[in-house]
Amino acid sequence: MLKVENVTKYYGDVLAVDNLSFTVNEGEIFGLLGVNGAGKTTTFRMIMSLLEPTKGKITLNNQPVGYNISEKIGFLTEERSLLTKLTVKEQVIYYGTLKGMKEEEILKKLDYWLDRFKVSEYKERKIKELSKGNQQKIQFITAIIHEPDLLVLDEPFTGLDPINVELFMSVIKEFKEKGKMIIFSSHRMEHVELFCEKLVILLKGKTVLSGSLKEIKKNYRKKVIKIIGDIDIEELKKAKGVLEVKKENLEIIVKIESDDYVDEVFKIVKKGENINKFIVEDASLNEIFVSLVGEAYEK
């Protein structure tokens, strides 16, 4: 288990992280979210023991994080951290050796992952000769080559096309199934919704929302109704509790203040014709994030 307990970090007089606490259990994918400057990168660096907290403590399996357990952690940074003049093989051997692996073991696992990511032909190529997407694959391999207990993924899908995003997703899910702890950060909320059981949203270093994704979505009062049919949209816009009505392709999207107003909308829909769809859904995580962070900024 990773435990972040009442962690605060100052840079001089600047408060970067403010009394942050969360836990990540084995076999769990945890989302650490926030706008730029929210404190995510500082938190990652403290977990990696690259920075010391000003207050609080961070432990991994009851041990304080530090150099002595660095081989148990894998980190994929948002910024490229590859040595571009090295070949792929040299790069991965270098990282694997830093994590306490023997070269024979590194090369065996390297061949497996290069094949898995469909980049075996680049083994002897220099990093600088690879596309951004293939560089991201190599960076991911360096983060997982030693099969860490904790995997920290900061914007892991940067530079990837949809097919390779799916490939990365499958590997991340495999690590989860093996009981690994995973911290996942992305500005793409649809990716977070696919993965994360629990999450924390940071704003200016402070937690503004935390808990299970399922409960967060359930407790957010605003709902979305998706309708297909011939309906008087202007009448819908005037209905009690309706916040917004828009048309997207064949669907009419109605946002309401809460599920208390579903019946109001349904009464209008019943007057229409050719009704093929009427579904009430929780708001998306993206909508919750924008609403929450926007409101917090305005305070």
What features would you highlight for this structure?
299 residues; alpha/beta; six-stranded mixed sheet; four-stranded antiparallel sheet; 10 helices; 35% helix
Could you characterize the architecture of this molecule?
By secondary structure, this protein is α/β, with parallel strands linked by helices. The chain has helices at 40-47, 88-98, 103-116, 132-144, 162-177, 189-195, 213-219, 233-238, 262-269, 285-298, and strands spanning 2-11, 14-24, 28-34, 55-60, 63-64, 73-76, 150-154, 181-185, 198-203, 206-212, 223-230, 242-248, 251-256, 273-282. The mean pLDDT is 91. The strands form three sheets. The protein has a six-stranded mixed β-sheet, sandwiched between helices. The chain has a four-stranded antiparallel β-sheet with strand order 2-1-4-5, with helices on one face. The chain has ten helices and 14 strands. Strand 7 (150-154), helix 5 and strand 8 (181-185) form a beta-alpha-beta unit.
